[in-house]
Amino acid sequence: MTAWTTRLDSLGIVLPTPAKPVGAYVPAVRTGSYVYTSGQLPFVEGRLTAPGKVGDDVTLEQANAAARLAGLNALAAVHDLVGIDSVVRIVKVVGFVASAAGFTEQPRVLNGASELMGEIFGEAGVHARSAVGVAELPLGSSVEVEIIVEVQG
Amino acid sequence: MTAWTTRLDSLGIVLPTPAKPVGAYVPAVRTGSYVYTSGQLPFVEGRLTAPGKVGDDVTLEQANAAARLAGLNALAAVHDLVGIDSVVRIVKVVGFVASAAGFTEQPRVLNGASELMGEIFGEAGVHARSAVGVAELPLGSSVEVEIIVEVQG
Amino acid sequence: MTAWTTRLDSLGIVLPTPAKPVGAYVPAVRTGSYVYTSGQLPFVEGRLTAPGKVGDDVTLEQANAAARLAGLNALAAVHDLVGIDSVVRIVKVVGFVASAAGFTEQPRVLNGASELMGEIFGEAGVHARSAVGVAELPLGSSVEVEIIVEVQG
After folding, report:
1. What is the largest CA-CA distance in chain B?
2. Predicted-complex ipTM score
3. Cβ distance C145 to C70 under 8 Å?
4. Is there a contact between C134 and B135 if contact means CB atoms under 8 Å apart?
5. Can you tell me the distance from the alpha carbon of C33 to that of B6, in angstroms, rounded to the nearest whole number?
6. From chain A, which residues contact C within 8 Å (Cβ)?
7. Domain C4-151 falls in which CATH fold?
């Protein structure tokens, strides 16, 4: 086990308690050596931060911070399921950005999530990523982030 | 092998014959212990149900039913490839919802697919999920659903 | 090892050198027997081809060619990481198409990428696929393609 909890402590990063989704799905599922998370929104203590369209209601900076929060919630879902210390590497990040017409800076938005993974996990946080601009997200969220993580067997 | 076919019978659920897509792709692929399906549309006997944008042409109720149909077609693709009785668990559901401006109830739409998985597979149907609202879907479909399924070795 | 390099040569297909993305992510990651690529854009020698919305600024034919290029860049990312000869099969292709209002031919766009996989890998190139129409893509790209590939152990 790698002591990622120690690393989180030294960075002053606290993983939140994941909100339980209503219905026949869960925040994360383990299968074999992998954890797949559900799409995570930038909730902070039950409140959705920075709702709206990026490039219109929401600035790039706000969206970048929201992507970091959504990424943090994704890690919280992993932690709740298997414990963060079992993370071997972050494999994939997919990020959806609710985008105003003409907004094409989705990668800079998603860097908020990607840089969080790098800060915490270093080389083990380097991942493949897709960033996509979409019409509408659940509850009017500006970003949604899902991850695939390799964990110890 | 779990007798999911018996469960389907008792629920009165009939898996349709999957339509064969044209071109260099297929409804589902097995690799190792996993089946990945293609994005499935709510076809019923070759006819696309509930086309249009949800929140405009299509109601939430219609879209929820369409998501259930798309999920059923995804299971049909799995069944056609490996037999539904080899399902170990539903790992992931990704759903795209063609959304009118301001429609943000994508999770309630996708519950149509998620609840189908729960009805059939019980605990083995509990999955991670992402729900996203998009501009346009193939053929004007209101929903598109893809799944990742763990199957027996 | 299958001699896919020989096949590429006989087809006259040259895999480009992948552009290195800026930030805490990479063009492709290997985990176990799989390579996941990042979402790839139709860059040719650092220049984005066919930017804009398909069905408006970009024709179906141009978008189909762009999807082929994005798929080629995805294969280049795989080759750069593990060597193309280690490919066992193409498992999944996900394609996002920046779509003008009313454009619903995303599958015909993505055939550009799918047919490339078929040309190169034959039966091993037959994959599951999702094609989705979205509002905006990074840098104003008309298409973005990511793949999951099974590779030798």
Report:
1. 45
2. 0.94
3. yes
4. yes
5. 34
6. 33-34, 89, 91-93, 99, 101-107, 111, 114-115, 117-118, 125-135, 148, 150
7. 60s Ribosomal Protein L30; Chain: A; (3.30.1330)
